[in-house]
C-alpha cells in the first residue's frame, strides 16, 4: 500500500488502464480462438452460443426414446446412456419399461420393434385370440416368462428426475407411442437411428461430424449436431454399450458419473430381505462374497476357466496361510479367527450344480440364496399389478446381487455386466457405511 502511494498518480493509473485494456483484449481474443478451435468447450448445460441459437428458434418439447433388449444390466446401461443423451439434447426421455425374466436379444430396428410390439400384445390380450401359430399352452408359457416393470419401482430416480424429464411407457406398442405424442410416424417427425454400439458412437467433441466415415460400419456422431435436429422424436434401435458415448468435457464426464453412481437399487422389500440375510451371514461388511456366472453363453462354455480364475483370486486373497477347506472354522461370530463366511451369488441356484463343485470344495462355508428360503417369503407379496405376476422369480438374481454386494470384499468375474454392477453397488455400500 505504501509503495503504491509513492507512485506518481497519473502515470500509475494510465499504465494500469493500458495494461487493463491490453489484457482484456488478449483475453477476449484468446477465448474467441479457443472457442473457434474447440467449440466443444461449450458445455451442454451451460448456455453458450450454439445452444442459445437453437433454443431461441425452437422451444417446443422434443423427445428421445429407444428400444430395450437383452438382460437387466444391458437395459440398465442403455438407460444410463439414454438419460445422458436426454440431458445433453434437452429432450424428454420416453422411457421403455424394464423387461425382467426372459431375455430378448438385440435385432435390427424393425424386427426388434415388431417383436416388442408382439410381446406387449401377448400381455394385453392375455393369450386370447392370438392370431398366430402358437397354441394356448405355448402362449401362456411365453406370457409368464417375462414381465414389464416400472424402473422407478426398483431403482432410485432422485438424481435423474431432478435433471431430466421422464415419461414412463408401460408397453412397447409402437402405434401407441406415436398416438400419445401426436406424431406421425414419418421422417419429418421421427429420426430413426439404426444399429447398435458396433455401428454407432456418440461424441461430445465437435471434431466428429454427422458425416458417415469411410468405414460404413462405424458412424461417429457429434452430440452437439444432434442437438440441432428438428425432428420431434429421436428413436434409437439400441442405446446399449458401456463405451457408446465418448466424453472429453469434464462437466459431461462428471454428469455421466453422477447418473451411474446414483442409480442404486431402492426397492424397500428387497432392501429389507437383504438386510436380514446379511445379518445371518454375520452382518453387513462382515462376510466375503463371490459371483459365479456359469449358466449362459460364453460363461457356460468357459465356465471351468472362469471358476478357476475366481478360485485363484480367492486363494490369493487369503495368502495361502489359511486352510480354506477347514470347515471347523465356519464360525459367524468368532471375532478371533479370520471370518471365512462366504456368500456365493450365482445363476446356478444350488450348490449341487456340477459347475459349482470346485468352488464349493474350496469354500465349504459358502452359503447361497437356497439356504435362506424362509427369509424370502415376504417377496411373495410383490406382484406386478400390470400383469398379475408374482415378482419373486424375476427378483431372485437382483436379490442375490444385493446380498453379495453387502460383503466386505467381492470376488467377481470379468466381462459380466452383472458383475460390474455388483462391484459398483458394493462400492456405493462401502462408502455409505
Ligand atoms: C429445453 O427444452 C424446452 C422444451 O422442452 C424449452 O422450453 C427450453 O427453452 C429448452 N432449453 C434450451 C436451453 O434449449
Ligand atoms: C402346444 O405347444 C406345446 C409346446 O410348444 C406342445 O408341447 C403341445 O403338444 C402343443 N399342444 C397342442 C394341442 O398342439
Ligand atoms: C394432437 O393433435 C391434434 C390435432 O392437431 C390436437 O387437436 C391435439 O390437441 C393434439 N394433442 C396433443 C396431446 O398434443
Ligand atoms: C485343510 O483342512 C482339511 C480339512 O480339515 C484337511 O483335510 C487338509 O489336509 C488341510 N490342508 C492343509 C494344506 O493343511
Ligand atoms: C451370532 O451372534 C448373534 C448376536 O450376537 C446371534 O443372534 C446369532 O445367533 C449368532 N450366530 C451364530 C451362528 O452363532
From TrEMBL:
The chain crosses the membrane at residues 12-34. It comes from the Eukaryota. Keywords: Membrane, Transmembrane, Transmembrane helix. This is 12261_t:CDS:1. The lineage of its organism: Eukaryota, Fungi, Fungi incertae sedis, Mucoromycota, Glomeromycotina.
Amino acid at each position: 500500500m505504501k509503495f503504491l502511494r509513492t507512485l506518481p498518480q497519473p502515470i500509475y493509473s494510465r499504465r494500469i488502464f493500458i495494461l487493463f485494456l491490453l489484457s482484456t483484449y488478449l483475453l477476449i481474443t484468446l477465448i474467441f480462438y479457443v472457442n473457434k478451435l474447440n467449440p466443444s468447450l461449450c458445455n451442454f448445460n451451460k448456455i453458450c452460443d450454439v445452444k442459445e441459437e437453437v433454443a431461441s428458434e425452437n422451444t417446443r418439447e422434443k423427445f428421445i426414446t429407444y428400444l430395450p433388449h437383452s438382460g437387466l444390466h444391458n437395459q440398465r446401461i442403455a438407460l444410463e446412456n439414454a438419460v445422458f443423451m436426454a440431458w445433453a439434447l434437452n429432450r424428454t426421455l420416453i422411457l421403455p419399461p424394464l423387461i425382467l425374466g426372459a431375455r430378448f436379444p438385440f435385432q435390427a430396428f424393425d424386427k426388434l420393434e415388431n417383436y416388442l410390439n408382439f410381446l406387449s400384445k401377448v400381455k394385453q390380450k392375455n393369450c386370447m385370440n392370438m392370431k398366430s401359430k402358437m397354441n394356448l399352452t405355448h402362449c401362456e408359457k411365453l406370457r409368464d416368462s417375462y414381465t414389464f416393470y416400472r424402473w422407478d419401482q426398483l431403482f432410485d430416480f432422485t438424481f435423474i428426475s431432478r435433471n431430466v424429464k421422464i415419461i414412463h411407457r408401460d408397453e412397447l406398442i409402437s402405434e401407441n407411442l406415436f398416438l400419445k405424442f401426436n406424431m406421425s410416424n414419418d421422417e419429418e417427425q421421427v429420426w430413426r437411428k439404426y444399429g447398435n454400439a458396433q455401428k454407432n458412437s456418440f461424441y461430445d467433441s465437435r471434431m466428429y461430424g454427422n458425416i458417415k466415415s469411410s468405414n460404413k460400419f462405424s458412424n461417429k456422431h457429434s452430440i452437439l449436431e444432434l442437438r440441432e435436429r428438428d425432428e420431434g422424436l429421436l428413436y434409437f434401435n439400441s442405446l446399449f454399450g458401456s463405451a457408446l458415448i465418448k466424453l472429453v468435457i469434464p462437466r459431461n464426464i462428471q454428469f455421466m458419473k453422477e447418473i451411474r453412481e446414483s442409480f442404486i437399487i431402492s426397492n424397500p422389500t428387497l432392501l429389507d430381505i437383504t438386510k436380514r440375510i446379511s445379518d445371518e451371514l454375520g452382518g453387513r461388511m462382515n462376510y466375503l462374497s463371490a459371483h459365479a456366472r456359469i449358466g449362459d453363453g460364453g460363461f457356460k462354455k468357459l465356465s471351468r476357466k472362469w471358476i478357476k480364475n475366481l478360485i485363484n483370486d480367492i486363494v490369493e486373497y487369503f495368502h495361502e496361510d489359511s486352510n480354506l477347506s477347514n470347515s471347523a472354522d465356519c464360525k459367524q461370530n468368532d471375532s478371533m479367527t479370520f471370518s471365512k463366511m462366504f456368500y456365493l451369488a450365482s445363476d446356478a441356484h444350488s450348490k449341487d450344480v456340477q459347475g459349482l463343485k470346485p468352488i464349493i470344495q474350496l469354500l465349504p462355508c459358502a452359503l447361497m440364496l437356497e439356504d435362506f428360503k424362509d427369509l424370502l417369503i415376504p417377496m411373495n407379496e410383490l406382484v406386478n399389478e400390470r400383469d398379475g405376476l408374482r415378482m419373486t422369480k424375476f427378483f431372485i438374481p437382483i436379490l442375490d446381487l444385493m446380498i453379495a454386494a453387502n460383503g466386505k470384499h467381492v470376488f467377481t468375474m470379468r466381462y459380466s455386466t452383472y458383475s460390474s454392477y455388483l462391484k459398483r453397488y458394493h462400492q456405493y455400500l462401502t462408502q455409505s457405511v
